[in-house]
Design a protein that fits this description.
Distance between the termini: 108 Å
Number of helices: 2
Mean pLDDT: 77
Radius of gyration: 48 Å
Order of helices and strands: HEEEEEEEEEEEEEEEEEEEHEEEEE
Number of strands: 24
Helix content: under 10%
Length: 426
């Protein structure tokens, strides 16, 4: 009993060993005999560069004969035993096929009919000849290479359409056209054997040479560096990275940066810039306002007012009104300008553009004190600083021992036009 069990266990191993010895060396044991059974690339190719697909050696010795009816074989010669390989591509391009066998090999290429797209299990009625399109020539039929002799055959310039599967049919020369192949055919005797090489070389259409197939290229004619064939724009501002001066920032300028109309280094697009058209030093992008206090000591007479050289505390006595000129805080770059209009009522010429400091104030005061400003004269002071709301004060001499009328406003010094503004709000 034990001997019988050992024998039964040994039988499968003997069968497998016998089968391996009977099979040709290096042969591929997948079933290429059946149409649409084996796919060289289950995932449709959608790359942008040339790629080569190869099939392991195929032994067609035990395959069925092509009778010229059940399997398409519309070449000048009839096929013998046929192997079928399917190729899938999601992009258009060129396909070149090479086959080497130990028998007289024939090649034929087919594609799925557009009307059969979506068919789960295509049959022979769903395929048609794959056209050939050499460079500079219109596509034409000719996807069958059936030379009467030769163990090596090629099919070149096959035109592959996107999402239309291609089937390569590899057979052996059996008989001339019109004479179906049968098991009784003996001429030539080598109708089947080992297909040692079956190579498919696919070159996708890529007119702009950016390694993105034209079928998937969103920017045809432009050699892009992004996967979609366009120029890379990582920050999404529609300015290619290769010319973006502010990479990583979604800019709104042609150079890829953020617009800063007032050049205060706070982008207009930022919610923090409350003053997009005016430069400013504050965190909200707005200009700082000068805090200015003016006090001049006037001796107001009937037909004119006289600026006195007195201390501020002495101003305010009968017939006198006092004003003090002061700017706080003292900011670098602040300037003061004095103007008197109309000229015929003003004894002092315009004084302007001087840096606001102690010396400038002394010089200005020395020019103004003890001068008579006639009724109707307007004394104007402009305090300005770059990127800052300036201060404006005007005294209009009224005469009749009345103090001059004071008008206070702010200055739009950012625009370069020193026009007093009643409203300093932004």
């Amino acid at each position: 009993m034990r001997t019988h069990l050992l024998f039964l266990r040994a039988v499968p191993a003997i069968v497998i060993a016998t089968a391996l010895l009977a099979a040709p060396a290096g042969a591929n044991h997948r079933n290429y005999d059946a149409f649409n059974h084996e796919v060289i690339n289950p995932v449709p190719y959608q790359g942008g560069v040339q790629r080569t697909f190869e099939v392991a050696p195929i032994d067609t010795t035990s395959y069925t004969y092509d009778d010229g009816v059940s399997e398409p074989a519309a070449c000048s010669d009839n096929f013998g035993k046929t192997a079928w390989v399917r190729f899938n591509s999601a992009v258009a391009g060129r396909l070149d096929v090479q086959a080497v066998a130990n028998f007289n090999v024939i090649l034929y290429a087919h594609e799925l009919k557009p009307s059969a797209i979506g068919t789960a299990n295509p049959s022979f009625t769903d395929i048609q000849d794959l056209l050939v399109a050499p460079p500079g020539q219109a596509p034409r039929s000719g996807s069958c290479n059936a030379a009467s002799s030769g163990n090596t055959e090629t099919l070149d310039f096959l035109r592959v359409n996107p999402n239309l599967p291609v089937w390569v049919q590899v057979g052996g020369f059996c008989s001339l056209a019109g004479n179906p192949c049968t098991n009784r055919d003996t001429t030539p005797p080598t109708q089947s054997g080992i297909i040692s090489t079956l190579r498919l070389i696919f070159t996708p259409d890529d007119a702009d040479n950016d390694d993105v197939a034209d079928t998937l290229d969103l920017c045809k004619g432009l050699a892009g560096d992004a996967p979609n064939g366009c120029l890379r724009d990582d920050d999404g501002d529609r300015v290619p990275d290769r010319s973006d001066a502010c990479k990583g920032i979604t800019g709104d300028l042609p150079n890829g940066c953020l617009r800063d109309t007032d050049r205060d280094q706070v982008p207009d697009k930022s919610e923090s810039d409350a003053c997009r058209r005016r430069p400013g030093e504050r965190a909200d992008g707005c200009p700082r306002a000068l805090e200015a206090t003016f006090r001049l000591c006037f001796n107001n007479l009937r037909s004119y007012s006289l600026i006195l050289k007195r201390r501020p505390k002495e101003c305010g006595r009968r017939g006198k009104s006092g004003f003090l000129l002061r700017v706080s805080p003292k900011l670098a770059g602040t300037k003061i300008k004095f103007r008197c209009r109309p000229v015929r009522k003003c004894p002092v010429d315009d004084v302007g553009g001087r840096a606001l400091n102690a010396r400038a104030l002394r010089v200005l005061r020395s020019q103004l004190v003890n001068e008579r400003f006639r009724r109707g004269a307007r004394l104007e002071f402009f305090i300005t600083r770059e990127n800052t709301w300036g201060a404006y004060r005007r005294w209009q001499v009224r005469g009749g021992r009345k103090p001059p009328r004071l008008t206070s406003a702010c200055l739009d010094s950012m625009s370069g036009v020193r026009r007093p503004l009643a409203d300093c709000s932004l």
